[in-house]
Protein: Fucose isomerase
Amino acid sequence: MKKGVKLGVVCLARKTFDYKAAEKIYQELKKGLKKIENTAYTFINDLVIEVKDAKKAANKLLESNIDGLVVISGTFHLGHLVLELDKAIRKPILLWGLNELPYDGGKIRLNSVCGVNLDASNLYKAGNRKYHAIVADTIEQDWIDALRINAALEEAHIGILGYRAQGFFNLAIDELNSFSEMGMLIDHYELNEVMNLEVLREDVEKKEQQLKEIFDASGITVEQLKDVARLVVKLQKFVDDNRLSALAIRCWPEFARDFGISPCAAMSFLQAENYILGCEGDIEGTISMLAQQAVGAKTPFLADLSQVDLEEDYALLWHCGVAPCNLWDGKCNISLDTYFAGGRGVTADFVMKSGEFSVLRFDSAQGEYRVFLQKGESIPMEKELKGTYFKAEFEKDIKNVLNTVIGNGIAHHISVVYGDFIRPFEIFAQLKGWKVIK
Structure:
């Protein structure tokens, strides 16, 4: 389900144009808006024509605590109106222009697009870049989804368990810069807060049975399977008790050494149940996963651009065995294995399903945030490796993708989801003033 948002909606007009027609159009547009998933509204029902109308509307919208403002240019209108709204509300704005109606006696009836032009110019020259403009018969839902991303990040409670993985300096994060850019605070927890957490035996036994139903566990010991089940319950309880939106975990080397197994398989299980868990202490990767979830993407996961074949033009998106188990291709043997960490790795092993996928990474460098985006197709392959992975054909040739990643210093984790989830992040980046790297 998409993250819920609340929008304010106004329709601007001027009586020297066909404001009666604009009013009828507005009533129909409201009906369509009400059908959009998980979106609430504060409508200003009357046309906003005079400055006093704009001030009154602004006060009502300010009280409603909206996430964004839809400004419909019903007809051309006074330039004061959008500025009065912006002065009070200070939220992202969608400037919505209407297609022109058939002429009436040689007179233009709406002149709506010129109104959008006026408003955009006024906002831009006043220093506001948090606006987006369309000319259409229906709203651009990708803009609404961009607001869902913003709302999810502002409301998020992000945790990091331990620290980033050893030597992964590129996964470090400036916490106050992330607060400034996204409005989130990050809470730090020690690894032993999960390892030592008391849980009920019956809960562990239930999870153990579920694991047996999903995975071929013949490659691990009975005790290792119990440890995976215990860690599932501990992580789930920890996230729920602390009301975390997402948790980044330092998953090696301490877990295998001190708990007896790595958390990969436990994370694979929980991510399939819509928990956002990032490996190797990668906070920005974890935030990227949360952002994809906000726009309706299901079970995001972190992967490495692990192997590239320049001649065959594909890459392997692989990780050690942490991807959500519900993304299994349904053909290969889905199993648990201990191929690393001296036999204490305990990872999920399977080829992931085929289909369209989207890649996202919110990535900071020298105080600036960038948004890395790619799209491609996961294609069938045989199970030849340990871990979780799929063969990826990108829209761009793999050499171009690789050069883009390396040339821009993008961190080596990317958040991946199935489906097309690109455009909302382009709009989100525009509203934030972040660079888009594609």
Q: What stands out?
A: The chain has two domains: 5-139, 152-437. The longest strand covers residues 368-379.
